[in-house]
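Working notes for the structural subgroup meeting. M.R. asked for a predicted model of this chain before we commit to crystallization trials. I am recording the input and output together here so anyone reviewing the notebook later can reproduce the run.

Input as submitted:
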Amino acid sequence: MEIYGYSERGAMNALFYGMALNDDKDAMIEFLKLVGKDLNADQYTDYKLYIECSLSDFGDPDLVIIAEKEGKGKDVFFVEAKVSHQGHFSINEQMRKHNEYCESIEENIIAKKYDASNLFFQLKLKDLFYKTKGLVKQDNNSYNDKIRCKKFKTDQDYRVLGSNKIVKQFSSLITKCEDAYFIAIVPNSDEIKEGIKDFDVRIVTWESILEKDELKKYLSETVKFNQTDRKSQILNSPWDNNKSQ
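Returned structure, recorded in token form:
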């Protein structure tokens, strides 16, 4: 029996459900090594994965990984993924639009609508949640951040977790973690020309994942299913398995 998923969600499910169902901690270590050598991925002894769980007004992260360090607490990884949708995903365009939005907030242009699907806006909301533990006050002067807490064109003045007990339970698991990291999984595109101010995002490409045998075994069939000879739903160009070997 085989399962094939579609697009971004299909790729994420194939990769991370594959790891979890096989209790493949070595594969998770390889993934975290792609995130950054400074993480010392070998220090983690166990992982809990939460897929598309709600943080209410702070968004629904594609994936949250809570990684346990033996006798040394836990770290949290917020992961957002983007795909090409048979077009061309540009990391620079995502950055440009997000920085433009942040600049409009600095200039108090409150009519500037945010793009809720923007990769960096989504991750920045998780950064805002982690730094404030979800307790963003209506008077935001005490928290200097380059993202508007107020939701666009609503009567609600600030973002909240709400009263849902599952959301609160999930959020409490995150706020107990010692350090937070923010990961974007994206198609390989342009060389990055600028960064996000006051915010560290680790970029991992789908292609770099497919170059690792420990990870490719979970992802490759889903990537092949999501492409034709000319277009890929996940990558900017169709994946040639022969070239990756």
